[in-house]
Amino acid sequence: MNNSDTNKIHKRPWWQRWIRKNIDTSVSTHEELIDEIRQSQKNNIIATESLSMLEGVMQVDKLQVRDIMIPRANIRFLQIHDSFHDILNVVLDAGHSRYPVFDDDKDDVEGILLAKDLLKYVGNEESFDIDDIIRHPSFVPESQQLNTLLSQFRNSRNHMAIVVDEYSGTSGLVTIEDVLEQIVGDIDDEHDDVDEKHNIRAQSDGRFTVQAKTEIEEFNEYFKCDMSDRGYDTIGGIVSQKAGKIPQQGEEVILRPFQFKVLRSDGRKIQLLEVNKIN
């Protein structure tokens, strides 16, 4: 092996180097590779938590921004003409660290305000000028792959991006935390509230993304339906029961009047579902 080959190996992501060292790389499909990794966990080569993260890393490149974004209707916006006290009240109520700032229209996002930047004006509110502290916004399309978005976040050092639709309108926002949660699972902090964790998210194209842990009662209330909760508490449980197994990423299950597509599954449980209403 020459120096060029050695350099190429060291440039590969850590998980690719680990797989090449520990897994049979003669497998020819994504599903076969997942099966090999799961077998390694059963043989106690890797821990259960490591298995979940490896699967999350491999599945990130199959998800798009629209699958995980916070829809426009759920965003806490600030207006560029808001006073210091108005903004402070929103920050105290919402508890977020970053807020999109718009001018006259929510399709016209001027920047991102970091809550910590308000501290310099405490006791000196009359000198407040929002233009001095808002940061240039980053925009991404709904269709962007999550692995590309994660690289963009790392390179730009931004933690939030505004998601735009095909007409350049604001359709949602996405944070680096949203992407990382697809790998490591839910990340709760001291500001997270149960109601702030949106288990069901409506997308601009009529689809819905639903956390598999969503209770059936919550699902029924949201969709105004009567899905049976006999024997199961969560929507992931009832989908797995219908499939007769733990469905893998990409598999579809029909429970009329809905079609469920698995967006993420770690082999032990479903984590994220795409839901479409069908006739």
The portion of residues assigned to helices is: 25-40%
Fourth CATH level, the homologous superfamily of the largest domain: CBS-domain
CATH architecture classification of the largest domain: Roll
Beta-strand portion reads: 15-25%
Oligomer description: single chain
The count of domains is 3
Tell me the distance between the termini. Answer: 59 Å
Q: Could you say which structural class the secondary elements and strand pairing correspond to? A: alpha+beta
Can you describe what's shown?
With 279 residues, the chain is an alpha+beta fold. It folds into three domains: 3-46, no CATH class; 64-196, Roll (CBS-domain), CATH 3.10.580.10; 199-279, 2-Layer Sandwich (Uridine Diphospho-n-acetylenolpyruvylglucosamine Reductase, domain 3). It has helices spanning 3-11, 14-22, 30-42, 48-60, 65-68, 84-94, 146-156, 176-184, 216-223, 235-243; strands spanning 70-71, 78-79, 98-102, 109-114, 139-141, 160-164, 170-175, 200-202, 208-211, 252-255, 258-265, 270-277. The strands form three sheets. Strands 8-9-12-11-10 form a five-stranded antiparallel beta sheet. Strands 1-7-6-5 form a four-stranded mixed beta sheet. It has a three-stranded mixed beta sheet with strand order 2-3-4, with no helix packed on it. The longest helix is centred in the N-terminal third of the chain and has 13 residues, at 30-42. The protein is globular, with a radius of gyration of 22 Å. Residues 190-196 have low confidence and may be disordered.
